């Protein structure tokens, strides 16, 4: 029987995944700056809605899709989980549960994007601050749940019915 991953293992895997995502985002920034420079002689002006769409379609959605495929596949693990020899355990329907898990897992990130982008266009009004606050509270809740729960599951795991195991 598989044992539950430790807090330390989960946090190291999270750090590795964060480094991979950060590398992708830095490469994306460089590529897009080059495209903007070659095609438009600089970064074009975008509306709030366009910026929201660009952020979602180029950063959050690709990461959700990639992580869902990786965790829903035969190895059931992201880059960090593979390095730490962990995997996500599913009772059934791994692709569906992986998708649910990753949508929930990256929801705070998306809400944070939405809040910051909205704030840039609307002087950080109540909506921007509410979205940012919800984002931070959810991220904090996820971390606290991994720390205090004996099975180290967070909201995304509970929604998807998954457990990270050794």
What is the topological layout?
Elements: H1 7-40, H2 48-72, H3 79-83, E1 87-89, H4 94-121, H5 126-148, H6 155-160, E2 163-165
Antiparallel strand pairs: 1-2
Helix pairs in contact: 2-4, 4-5
Domain RDD: 5-161
Main location: membrane
Membrane topology: Multi-pass membrane protein
Describe the fold and architecture.
The chain has six helices and two strands, in the order H-H-H-E-H-H-H-E. It is mainly alpha-helical. It has one domain. It has a two-stranded antiparallel ribbon with strand order 1-2. Helix 2 (48-72) runs antiparallel to helix 4 and helix 4 (94-121) runs antiparallel to helix 5. The N and C termini lie close together (10 Å).
Order of the strands making up the biggest sheet = 1-2
The low-confidence parts are none
Q: Which structural class is indicated by helix and strand composition? A: mainly alpha
* Element pattern in H and E: HHHEHHHE
Query: What form results from the Cα inertia axes?
Result: globular
Instruction: Tell me what portion of residues adopts beta-strand conformation.
Output: under 5%
Helix content: over 70%
Q: Distance N terminus to C terminus?
A: 10 Å
Q: How many helical elements?
A: 6
Rg, rounded, reads: 18 Å
Mean pLDDT: 96
Quaternary state, please?
single chain
Tell me the major beta sheet: 2 strands, antiparallel
The tally of beta strands, per DSSP, is 2
Could you say how many structural domains there are in total? 1
InterPro entries: RDD
Domain RDD: 5-161
Transmembrane segments: 12-39, 51-69, 127-148
Keywords: Membrane, Transmembrane, Transmembrane helix
């Amino acid at each position: 029987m598989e044992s539950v991953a430790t807090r330390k293992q989960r946090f190291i895997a999270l750090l590795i995944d964060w480094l991979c995502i950060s590398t992708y985002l830095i490469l994306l920034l460089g590529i897009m700056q080059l495209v903007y420079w070659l095609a438009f002689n600089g970064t074009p002006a975008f509306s709030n809605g366009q910026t929201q769409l660009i952020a979602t379609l180029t950063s959050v959605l690709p990461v959700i899709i990639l992580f869902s495929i990786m965790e829903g596949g035969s190895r059931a693990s992201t880059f960090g989980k593979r390095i730490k020899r962990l995997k996500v355990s599913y009772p059934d329907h791994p692709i569906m549960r992986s998708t649910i898990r990753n949508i929930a897992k990256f929801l705070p990130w998306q809400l944070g994007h939405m809040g910051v982008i909205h704030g840039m266009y609307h002087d950080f009004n109540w909506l921007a601050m509410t979205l940012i606050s919800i984002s931070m509270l959810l991220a904090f809740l996820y971390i606290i749940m991994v720390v205090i729960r004996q099975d180290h599951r967070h909201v995304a795991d509970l929604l998807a019915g998954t457990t990270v195991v050794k």
